[in-house]
Amino acid sequence: MKQGTQSSAGTGIPDVPARGSRVPPQQRAADVDRDRDLADGAGAVRGEHAHSETPIPRPRQVLQRPSVRGQILDALRTALVGGELTPGEVYSAPALGDRFGVSATPVREAMQQLATEGAVEVVPNRGFRVIERGARELAELAEIRALIEVPVMLRLARTVPTARWADLRPLAEGTVRAAASGCRATYAESDRAFHRAVLALAGNEQLVQIAEDLHRRAQWPLVGGPVTRGRADLVADAAEHLALLDALAAGEWDVVRSLVQEHFAGSA
User: Fold this and answer.
1) Is-contact 30 22, C-beta < 8 A?
2) How far is CA 126 from the centre of its chain?
3) How far is CA 181 from the centre of its chain?
4) How many CB atoms lie within 10 A of CB 234?
5) S-S: 92 plus which of 16, 106, 127, 134, CB 3.0-4.6 Å?
6) 3-class SS of residue 123
């Protein structure tokens, strides 16, 4: 037994320092954070560490930064659909940060996400330019959406019980209310929610994600004006959701095919 310790062999309890022996000072949480920063390259020599033991991992907790980034991303998407971000214009992260009352970092991260979605493009040393799109691109998106969603909805019309379609009626009615408000961004969100719920009945999550990405792209404004569809257009579009539900519940396949194709063409 080492001098200065009391043995507890055979008891299953580890040896502890004897009374009067000196216990080494314990590493504080602040020291752990400092050492981690040093190891991450915040000015320390590579491999330098003040303690030999591995730093204790930080506890899992709710962080604010990802939440802020998500909120800014939602706000930017709303501004994009609503026409507040003009096609062809360049916006800097610091300027947008001032607008939303946050630092440039979460804005820059959100804009990078929009860049991967094709909504904006990076302009070195300046910021992000909103992509300019024309009627042809919208028509192409409408064609692709029809190619994907029409066969799926025809299959659903054959297999989904009538009661399941009734469950989606509140979402369709929600699009009517959103359209009546005249707010393009509000309608865009409710429109995606309805189509997402319909396609989710197919049980294919990849299909839902791809279709929603195409749907979101189809909602971006065109060059020449932030808003190309007025309240009347939105109301007519929303009314087609109710008609589509009725046709799906009745199993009227030809009506479903015609409604979906016209719905996408009218959205372009």
Assistant:
1) no
2) 25
3) 24
4) 23
5) 127
6) strand
